[in-house]
Amino acid sequence: MNDILVQVLISIIGGFILSNITLIIFQVVSYHPYSKPIVPIFFQSISVFLGLVILILIDGYEISLSSQWVSELESSLILGITDIMRILPLFYVLMLYFLFRASTRAPLESPILELLDSE
Amino acid sequence: MLFWLGFFLMLVGVSWARMGPSFQRNRYYKPIFIIGLLCVIGNLWQSPDQSRDIEELLNHIVDFLPWFFTGFLGYYLVLLGAPTYMKVRYPPLIIGWIIIFVSFYLYFEYNNHLSVTDILVSLSTVLGISFSLISFFFLVRFVENRIPPEGIAPELTDSEKEFVRKIISKNIGVDEK
């Protein structure tokens, strides 16, 4: 397979695993009597496992108990974090448009705010 | 190891800050988040005998932090000076915009090794994150839809009615007597 396509696939799985692990931790540590986290955590754990299986196969290893599950998990999390740090500037530039609009528009007219200003 | 401990503590901090219901949010989210951040930053000065992946990640963080914190400060100052609710305040607004431009300079200074292809490949991570969030949304909806609706709430007792009346009277400024 094309190298870039493999990198894209690994990046997608990296983001998927990072996001799922984040959501699993969120549901566990923020448990409260009104939350029902068991079913989502179960399916998210399975999908993380499947993501790791794909990564191990891409790396050319065989699936077994002795496969490097922990190091693959670590690599995928690192890849997810790195990718987010790389693409954040794009969103940063996108936000500049809204920031520019916020800094040039006229203040809202409100009698209550005028009262506050006059005090 | 210190990095992952810090990463976990930061996630715990953010989770505790956002957990619901709002009146049961954990009040220790700030110290936990700050301890996590310190662990991650402290890891930058740890001995170099770490895995290659972690070392690469730490290099990325070193390239990321200068422009990100500068940009964050610039955004904050611009929002402080922008005429969103109050009159425009020029000093923070102008300084904020200058700092934002400085953050752009810092970005190109620290990240000149990145190519457009690197960034486009990294952009595909958004797909993975979106899949994960969409599946989470459907899982939560599935679970919530299985909860049977609660019965009709009983009528307020006399003491509850009195309590509500007192609150409303106090809020609209009517003498209780």
Largest interface: A-B, 57 and 65 residues
Give the strand content of chain B.
Answer: under 5%
Q: What is the overall silhouette of chain A?
A: elongated
Number of helices of chain B: 7
Q: Which stretches of chain A are low in confidence, meaning pLDDT under 50 for 5 or more residues running?
A: none
The main pleated sheet of chain B reads as:
none
Shape of chain B: extended
Derived from helix and strand composition plus strand pairing, the structural class of chain A reads mainly alpha
Query: Which structural class fits the helix and strand makeup of chain B?
Result: mainly alpha
Average per-residue pLDDT of chain A, rounded, comes to 85
Q: What series of H and E elements makes up the topology of chain B?
A: HHHHHHH
Number of structurally distinct domains of chain B: 2
**What portion of residues of chain B is helical?**
over 70%
Q: How many distinct folded domains of chain A?
A: 1
Rg of chain B is 25 Å
Question: Distance between termini of chain A?
Answer: 70 Å
- What is the strand tally of chain B? 0
Given the structure, what is the number of helices of chain A? 4
Q: Could you give the count of β-strands of chain A? A: 0
What does this structure look like?
The complex is a heterodimer of chains A (119) and B (177). Chain A has helices at residues 3-29, 38-58, 69-104, 111-118. Helices cover 77% and strands 0% of the residues of chain A. Chain B has 177 residues and is an all-alpha fold. Chain B has two domains: 1-46; 48-126. The N and C termini of chain B lie far apart (66 Å). The interface between A and B is large, with 57 and 65 residues.
Which features would summarize this protein structure in a list?
heterodimer, A: 119 residues, mainly alpha, elongated, B: mainly alpha, 2 domains, 72% helix, 0% strand, extended
